[in-house]
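Practice problem 4.
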């Protein structure tokens, strides 16, 4: 991927995090029934896979970037003004699904490594305290440090993943170079990324209120937000709403 002429990621203001979500909602609103169908298919497949014994949770996580790639390709098609078809979520993935699966495995491995490093660090710093009962109640500092380390680790991992599915399906990238590029673009725009993530987290909480039915809208908006953010940071800038 590095051998190709890949544009240098743009640095955007933190307020763009909200613009990404807004533009994603506008795009989903143009063909709502199809996007809702995509979300329903995604949810049913993920629930079925997650219920499998032993490997269910791992396979469910590996499938996330595969579906992310499908949603991104659908978003690109919708932004061109084309009509989405119910099976587009799957049919357009044929050239990319293997690399997206490898991306999911690489991301899973990154999370495992980060969590192991965090555990080792905590053992080195607070080994004696962790061996006692009620360690977190007795050491508020340990609890705060644990939360900061976990939150920071997950945020760094998410930056290395966020743009990677888009790089694979729209630029033909390979998983590891796509993750490195995503980390570079994400770190350059960590403020906007954090702002966007907080907005999506709030919307996720609201989506859960009416028996979780709001997730049928939240899911496509979330995936299309990834596409919009990539377009703004790594592509030709924020697309104008028609």
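Answer key:
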């Amino acid at each position: 991927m590095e051998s190709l002429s890949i544009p240098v990621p743009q640095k955007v203001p933190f307020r763009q995090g909200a613009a990404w979500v807004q533009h994603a909602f506008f795009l989903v609103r143009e063909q709502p029934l199809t996007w809702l169908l995509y979300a329903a298919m995604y949810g049913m497949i993920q629930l079925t896979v997650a219920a499998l014994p032993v490997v269910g949770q791992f396979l469910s996580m590996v499938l996330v970037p595969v579906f992310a790639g499908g949603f991104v390709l659908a978003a690109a098609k919708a932004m061109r003004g084309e009509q989405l078809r119910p099976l587009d979520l799957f049919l357009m993935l044929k050239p990319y699904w293997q690399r997206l699966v490898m991306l999911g495995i690489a991301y899973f491995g990154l999370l495992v490594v980060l969590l192991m490093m965090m555990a080792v660090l905590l053992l080195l710093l607070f080994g004696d305290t962790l061996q006692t009962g009620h360690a977190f109640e007795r050491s508020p500092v340990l609890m705060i440090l644990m939360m900061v380390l976990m939150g920071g680790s997950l945020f760094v991992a998410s930056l290395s993943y966020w743009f990677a599915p888009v790089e694979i399906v729209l630029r033909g990238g390979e998983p590891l170079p796509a993750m490195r590029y995503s980390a570079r673009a994400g770190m350059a725009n960590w403020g906007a990324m954090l702002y966007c993530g907080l907005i999506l987290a709030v919307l996720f909480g609201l989506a859960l209120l009416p028996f979780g039915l709001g997730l049928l809208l939240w899911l496509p908006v979330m995936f299309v937000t990834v596409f919009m953010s990539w377009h703004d940071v790594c592509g030709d800038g924020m697309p104008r709403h028609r």
